[in-house]
Amino acid sequence: MTSSTPDAALGTRVEEPARPTAARRWPTRWWDLAVGGGLAAMLVPGGLGAVEWGRDGTLWGMSLVALAITMIGLFALLYMLLGRGVLRRAVLGQSGFNESPPMRRDVLFVVAWVLLQGVATAVNPSFATLQFLSYPMLWSVLQRYRDSVLGSGCLALLVGLGSGVSYVRLGIPEPWLVAALVGAGSFGFAVAMGTWITRIYDRGEAQRQLVQQLQATQHEVAVLSAESGAAAERERLSRELHDTLMQSLTGLVMLSEQAERALAAGKPEMVQDRLARVHAAALDSLTEARALIAHTQPLGDGGLEVTLARVVERLRADTGLDVDLAVGSFSLDRERQVVLLRATQEGLANVRKHARASEVWVSLAEDAGDSVAVLRILDNGVGPGDLGRSGSSGFGLSGLSDRVRAVGGTVSFGSGASGGALLEVRLPLARAKTHSVGGPIHKQEGQL
């Protein structure tokens, strides 16, 4: 497993190994304690312990005490050589760290432990107490339910046979019936507990897998959101660059060309005027660039009406066009005001580049009937031509259409009623967090 940390140099997140938890550092700690405690209990004198200290008697050529201690030693040796590794894999698999089916050594350990349990119970029936370890081992190592039930049956049979042998030797009445009852009771309890715990585990495993799927889905959504956000940011920057710097640079090119023609014609006053305008336009472009980098409000402190007046005045000064501006009084949120500003800049840029017009009318007013703000830019030039038939002029009008649609508005571009070209933008009025736009509308002769 890994964890993410920020990379200060790159501004990204890098994966580093997760710190091991206690469950991974010592996964068999509870098994070690249980096995150690259980085997130690077998050494305790009395009814619980399997070593009958001080008792005489032999079995299979060994004293009962030595034989019982030998059984305990074999349990400990088997656990240390095979059991810890097998149970470690089982614990890690149940924790989701190492999911794999049982291996041959796992089955070998289970078989050896079960056989040793049966033999030890034949030496002393108190060894049956170790079933509290044996059954959980079976259900942990043998992952399939059927295998676990079958293993439990084999263990119950061997413990029952071993107990019967011990009861016969000890002279207990009806030894095989008692042994059968002990074995059947242990088997029934083990299967009931194993079934209950298995169902709990299966539900937990299903939930764990569901969480993993959810995390994977969340990661995928985060990646897609980041990619979508990056694409949207690139598109926004493209629109901003087109609506600000590109138009300003276009004006600088035209002013430079005018200055060159004036210089060639020997008109120093015009050259000086155009150079002064180039300087002013360059300063404005620098301001726009700084605002774009800082992502600040492009309207400035004066609001939309003052900004539109500045844009119109610059067009008048750069081209000599007769431009009329009329701005009505209504409330509009900042986002829509910026859209209207960009729409005005795009419309006037198209007039400058394509219209060959002498007069331009810019009108911004409220259509109270439809509750929309309406921006109209009309000129007396040659008309839209190919632009009108195609519906766009490259990135400019298509980008403007995207920007307007994003706030629920519409864009239309075509021929005016008396000729020329007409750009119309309609935006729904947003009443929340609105700002006043303009003062009372002033219509001049020839305006919309």
Automatic annotation (TrEMBL):
Q: Where are the residues of the annotated region Disordered?
A: 1-21
An example Pfam family from this entry, by short name, is: HisKA_3
Q: What is this protein called?
A: Sensor histidine kinase
Gene3D superfamilies referenced in this protein's UniProt entry, alphabetically: 1.20.5.1930, Histidine kinase-like ATPase, C-terminal domain
Using the record's annotation, list all stretches that form the Histidine kinase/HSP90-like ATPase domain. 335-431
One GO molecular-function annotation for this sequence? phosphorelay sensor kinase activity
Q: Keywords, A to Z?
A: Kinase, Membrane, Transferase, Transmembrane, Transmembrane helix, Two-component regulatory system
Endoplasmic reticulum found in the keyword field: no
Where would you find the membrane-spanning parts of this chain? 30-51, 63-87, 107-128, 149-170, 176-198
**InterPro entries from the UniProt entry:** HATPase_C_sf, HATPase_dom, Sensor_HK_TwoCompSys, Sig_transdc_His_kin_sub3_dim/P, Sig_transdc_His_kinase_ChrS
Q: Name one GO cellular component term.
A: membrane
What PANTHER family does the record tag this protein with? NITRATE/NITRITE SENSOR PROTEIN NARX-RELATED, SIGNAL TRANSDUCTION HISTIDINE-PROTEIN KINASE_PHOSPHATASE UHPB
